[in-house]
Amino acid sequence: MLVLVDLDDTLCNTWEAGKRTLVRFLFFLFRKRKFRAILYFLAGRYKRFERAKHVHVLDLDSIVEVVMRDIYPNISEEELREITSNVEETFFKFLKLYPDAIPFLSGVRKLGATVVLITDSSTEWQRKKIRVLGIEDYFDDVIISGETGHSKLDDYNFQLALRRFPSDEIYAVGDRDDTDMRGGKSIGAITILVRRGYFKSRKVEFADYVVKDLFEALEVIRSEHKKRAET
Fold it and tell me: In what order do the strands lie in the sheet with 141-144?
């Protein structure tokens, strides 16, 4: 059995931490009299980067730099360093595992699953999250878009996981339909969408199951695994 699991907003509260960081960041921008940047964020103009593949392999510092240069093309390196340092420090104060993350990871392990984390962003950023959250030992492998050069908007990382750990019983668990679920479908996985985080209200196209949390996701996997064993 192969279980592919997402990190951000599946195992940990990235969007919630990001929102709280943004509120602090807006106060920081106000103190710096960066009113154009405040309007940019309040208007949601950053959303245009959602499907930009190059952004999906970047860490938060680099994304902040992309956005700030979009607002202020001539911003100085000194200002950028101050801004990115402020954002990163604040973000990690708020980043937490969801209460169901460890029970889920432990549960699929008890079923004998090989567990692979597939996540977007840079190597340094995602591995720091994994280390800070203390979940390194739950994974047989970690596939990060910043290492492979492919975001989850492509199916490359899912195909890579299957090549490394061949299986005819595959589950893909994540919070985003057009990446986690679509990628899972590309390799024949049973796809389980967890409705939370930034993408929780988006249209569902590729998910076989839609659940409210990882406790329900674990029950789906147990049920499907039992069906296979019985047949």
Answer: 141-144, 114-119, 2-5, 170-174, 190-194, 209-211
Cα torsion 179, 95, 146, 76 to 10°: value is 120
Q: Given pLDDT bands bounded at 50, 70 and 90, which one contains residue 44?
A: confident
CA 163 from centroid of its chain's CA atoms: 22
My answer on whether 135 and 223 are in the same domain is: yes
pLDDT of residue 57: 64
* Measured distance CA(20)–CA(17) in Å, rounded: 5
pLDDT band for 118, please (50, 70, 90 cuts): very high
Same-domain status, 109 and 35: no
| Residue ranges making up the domain that contains 45 | 14-94
Question: Domain count of the chain?
Answer: 2
Task: Let me know whether 8 and 102 are in one domain.
Answer: yes
